[in-house]
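Format notes (please read before filing issues)

Several people have asked whether sequences and structure tokens are stored in separate files. They are not. Every record keeps both together, in the order shown below: the sequence lines, then the token lines. Line labels are part of the format and must not be stripped during preprocessing.
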Amino acid sequence: MQTVNIHDAKTNLSKLIEKAMKGESFIIAKAGRPMVKVVAIDQAETAKPRIGFMKGRLKAPDNFDALGREEIAALFGLAK
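Then the structure lines:
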């Protein structure tokens, strides 16, 4: 993956955008330190969210909401 500094990115922005649109992502760096990665929107949108990827693989105890209730109450001075 190509890394360009900010000055070169500003100077060659049109060319870099064309490359990104063809699938060649690049990194913009400042003083040699990577700052951002530029990818075409098509590529970014194809990444699927990972929400729910563990569904059905874990089991919480039936009393999950009550776990630690006494300890938490004691921490807040609400213990009976």
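For reference, the curators noted about this record: Residues 29 and 43 are 21 Å apart (CA to CA). Helices lie at 6-11, 13-21, 41-46, 69-75.
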